[in-house]
Amino acid sequence: MKALTLKVFCENSDPNKLSGKQVKYLAIADALRKAIKESHIAPTEALPSARKLAQQLSVNRHTVMAALAELVAQGWVEAKERSGYRVVANLPIQGSRAINKMAKTPQSFDWKFRVKQNCAVTPKVKASEYPYNFSGGQPDIRKFPFDEFKSHFSQTCQRPKIDDLSYGDSRGEAELIEEIARYLRRVRSITEKELMICNGSQEALYMISQLLLQPGDKVAVEQLGYPPAWAAFERTGATLIAIKQDERGIDPEHLAQVFAQGKVKLLYLTPLHQYPTTVSLDISRRMQIYQLAVQYGVAIVEDDYDHEFHYDSQPIAPMAADDPAGLVIYISTFSKLMFGGARIGYVVANNALIEQVAAYKMVMNHKCNVLVQQSVAKWMQQGGFEGHLRRMTRLYQKRRDFMVQQLRSYQEQGLPIHFEVPAGGMAIWLDTGKSIVGLKEKLLAHQVYLQTEVEFCRFKVLPDELTNSLASNSANNLPENLPENIPSHLPKKEYRFIRLGFAAMNEAEVTEGLAIVMKTLYGSDY
């Protein structure tokens, strides 16, 4: 019998520091399996005896026997009476060797994608890794009451509802649905609609898009808006139509023109705190927009992502609260009150739509995390949710006022910045008075994260030759073959706004971060 050399190792472990019989026997089984696949041991060939292998590897014979038994169970070797263990005869060793060789070649398999995704699975730049994080939708997770929430999670685990932990209603846990529905009735005046739990608002947007849109449909969106929502709509083959905005929000007259052209299936809005400008859409425009939607049979997706944080008055009730035609699809999330990783969102609509969304979710991922849902329900039932909400609302209002004070101080120093104090939300939309193209990259080098106007535009920064062409032509004399709605796009030099989130940082952090932003923007003028 030829000598057999085995390289026995355990993932993430030093080969000489294998601990425990279980880890050792699996490592030995893996080494033997690899030797067989690489044809170091041929089909029908006898393996060294357990005693010899034990001596070679300096382990107990019983550990080797356990490894051999594992290989027998997997079908790699067979035990022959009085002749020990042999490799089974019918292993396709040559085919395995060819596959192993192919596996070592990068991108050896040619995947045929129906649609190729163009968004990164992991962001190239992670806002939370920067000490000065002006991300506009980022809560201060350091203030979340983890100990309090832990007690609710512990209660859920100590007295589990066994039946609920199996497969069941994809709409979500009944107790959480009941708590959220009660909260929406009392605080947002939303009644007579069905509610469903989702893995964050993005999943809700995706499912709605897949159910309601098809290639050739159009979705009306705010000229400046939320790119992940746009991505969900575009995955269906629908076309986005950017609607003009002014200081009061979306322009109903332009919306009417777009609706009249036909094929608009959805209107996506962030009416309470427009994303990213923070403008609150007034009652008059809401009524105009709703009447247009009814007239043209267009459903409204109302994304109310941070309703809780409104400071100067009671927030305007959602459009879903006064929806006699039943065409508003209301989406919201706990991400701003808890943290994004909680993945608790919900969609509210009439029963016909919710039934279809629930059926679609059954195919996608069946249901959301049951233990988290039940824990959040207990948190709401026992008052912790609204207690945390009140604390964070006071804190964020204080932080908003502090940032306003800081920005006004910079105005007094002569810097050409302009802004409106937002009535709510978690950010300020700041006009810097100069081009911000390239600013983000410069600030990242100084450990500052923020988002610029470029990131919220329906069309990204244009090539210089097209920018120059736009700058030299009137709206009635534009070059041919421009993307749809390009007249609403600004020349590169006109991108002036940045979004400054104030919720995630304390006053010292805001002061230091703003100083870096202003110095980077204005240099010696600051």
Kindly describe this structure.
There is one protein chain. This protein is of the alpha/beta class and 526 residues long. It has helices at 21-37, 50-57, 61-74, 93-103, 146-158, 174-188, 200-212, 227-234, 252-260, 283-296, 351-364, 370-381, 384-412, 439-444, 464-471, 507-522, and strands at residues 77-80, 84-87, 132-133, 194-198, 218-222, 239-243, 245-246, 249-250, 264-269, 299-303, 328-333, 345-349, 418-419, 427-431, 448-449, 451-452, 497-501. The strands form five sheets. A seven-stranded mixed beta sheet has the order 4-12-11-10-9-5-6, sandwiched between helices. It has a four-stranded antiparallel beta sheet with strand order 13-14-17-16, with helices on one face. Helix 1 crosses helix 3. The protein starts with 20 loop residues before the first helix and ends with a helix.
Shape summary: elongated
- Helix/strand structural class: alpha/beta
- Rg calculated over all Cα atoms: 30 Å
Which stretches are low in confidence, meaning pLDDT under 50 for 5 or more residues running?
A: 10-16, 459-489
Short description:
This protein has 526 residues and is of the alpha/beta class. Helix content is 39%, strand content 13%.
Keywords:
7-stranded mixed β-sheet, 16 helices, 17 strands
Topology:
Elements: H1 21-37, H2 50-57, H3 61-74, E1 77-80, E2 84-87, H4 93-103, E3 132-133, H5 146-158, H6 174-188, E4 194-198, H7 200-212, E5 218-222, H8 227-234, E6 239-243, E7 245-246, E8 249-250, H9 252-260, E9 264-269, H10 283-296, E10 299-303, E11 328-333, E12 345-349, H11 351-364, H12 370-381, H13 384-412, E13 418-419, E14 427-431, H14 439-444, E15 448-449, E16 451-452, H15 464-471, E17 497-501, H16 507-522
Parallel strand pairs: 3-15, 5-6, 5-9, 9-10, 10-11
Antiparallel strand pairs: 1-2, 4-12, 7-8, 11-12, 13-14, 14-17, 16-17
